[in-house]
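User: two proteins, same treatment. go.

Assistant:
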Amino acid sequence: MNDHTVKAFDEDLNGLRALIAEMGGLTEAAIDDAMKALQQRDTVLAARVVEGDKRIDELEARIDRLVVQVIALRAPMADDLREIVAAMKIAGVVERMGDYAKNIAKRVPVIMTDARIEPLSLLPSMARLARDMVTDALDAFAARDPDRALEVIERDRAVDDFYNSIFRTMVTFMMENPKTITESAHILFVAKHLERIGDHATNVAEMVHYAATGNMPPERERETSIEGADAPTGD
């Protein structure tokens, strides 16, 4: 009986990890596709990103149900309990990152101008930084690797710096080109969504570190975006 119980517990944990991996993969793809749609002005692809967010939401709900089931049936303790609770929290954070990708896709139809908006060319590099943080944070969870999690946390500053640079560039651009203010504002919101994706990847990495070690990572001084940490995202 004990052997069967341990095996079933392992199967539960593996199922939970698999759901997190699937959810993370869909979210990473959504970020990539949202940015591709923006660069190529592809409203069809943008619509697919918006529709695909439903699957990410469904996976989060499945993870929540599985976590409740595992806690109720297996009474996990210590390392197992930390991992299970971290998985539930990570699912919520990944779902929010999917929402940011969806919000970027929703802005594609209103950023369809033929006007040359130079700051738009800066967004793909920022998106790659944020997306790579998501990938590495989730890989750290799969490997229970606290050192890799710390590396992700350190890279958040680069995303913040990128956002602040784009913000300054956009403000200058809008002052010089007032006819583009509406679309420029949407581009600025896209940059803010990417900055928040980087923040959430950092949150995932912090949870991974805690699940693996039992300790939160060392406190660090966080960068604050120049318009304020609680600035609205427009959604």
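Protein 2:
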Amino acid sequence: MIERTLEQVQSLISPQLAGETQSSAQSRYNQIRIAGVSTDTRTIQSSNLFIPLVGEHFDGHDYASDAYNRGAAAVLWQIDHPSPPKGVPIILVLDTLLALQQLAKAYRQELPVRVIGITGSNGKTTTKDLVASVLSTTYHVHKTKGNLNNHIGLPLTLLQLDENTEFAVIEMGMSNRGEIALLSELAEPEAAIITMIGEAHLLQLGSRKEIARAKVEILEGLQVGGTLIYNGDEPIIEEVLLELHKAASFKRLRFGKSETNDVYPTQVKLDSEGTHFQVNKTEYPDFYIPLLGFHNVINALAAIEAAALFDVKPEQIQSGLAASQLTSMRIEKLKAPFGLTVLNDAYNASPASMKAALELTEQLSGYGRRFAVLGDMLELGSDEEQFHRDIGKLLSPGAFDTVFTFGRLAAFIAEEAAQAFPQGKVKAFQDKQELIQQLQALISKDDVVLIKGSRGMRLEQVANALLS
């Protein structure tokens, strides 16, 4: 994490943003050392620099004194806020959010760290975890923790880097145009990965092409001579790349299922715990990932390309993939005490990820009955009803015994699926507890239950009920 004196912190913040250190005549303030930063008093650590952010319904400045009392060494203070707390070492700034971002960018530039940026509509968190795992076999690596992938989380991630970090694997999320460009310019990646272009954020952006343009913004901060690693099965990425003036300044590597890519799978086989696969390059051994599904093989291909780019040996890539530890709620395979298998994929959902989860569950063998619990897919814009109906049409009684849906939009999934299933085998709910009760009454120890929906539906509550 960042460790600097207040004087050094102030020097890292742009002169356009920084004021003077409060009580600057007292040189002891300037020499106070901070270790790490925090924007939340609930998780503040001793010697942190507290950065109070201002939101629509909160103002971190109200908690500055509390942060200091909890161990913060100093506080940034936005100059338009009156009455900064007395006796607290403070650096005045024009905007605390911009100061956080500037501090992170400047600190990143002081480090010898090499950065890999990852974005995409689906699979970016899993790909981040896989890339970090394979690089960790050879280098000292830091990766984005949890979901710190936005205009606040990414700067916090950069400020978590140690002086001896060799690689940072940075996830970049977005809702609108311009957001990925900002994150990329802060992180300045040497390599950028685009996992795929899906339908998430259609509500904000209106079309898949606009989504692709938003994802390709990751090139804005890509270092000259850097490498773009992208899903070659997405022709829309190629179309958008043609619009760029800097297209000649970076290298390209493509991954995907098609044989036109630089790397693609030649054999894929699922077992009860993960997926075995081979690729088209003879120098690579057989690979295994502790993840289920063909779509995760595609994510692993991006990690293979990134690792090879930075001289990780094939055997190390193999061991890194096999040892991967994934962020929770992304198709976690969990066992209830009485034997039931739960596939918990409740973190997020889009049409592409929903299809992948259903295909994965259909491919599983060795279980009793298969159940699907599907929730609303959010932020899909004016065609949201049709996207849900399309999912319903994919469901078949040969693959699933019973389908449960939760939410207003997921009811359209149920409406379409009911046309193919026997009566009573498709159940739509608006009450989550009622859904849980009816599902619990049906399941047995040999069954498998897929749980999939957008984060806002909080379907992990269903998983927790089944597992307890």
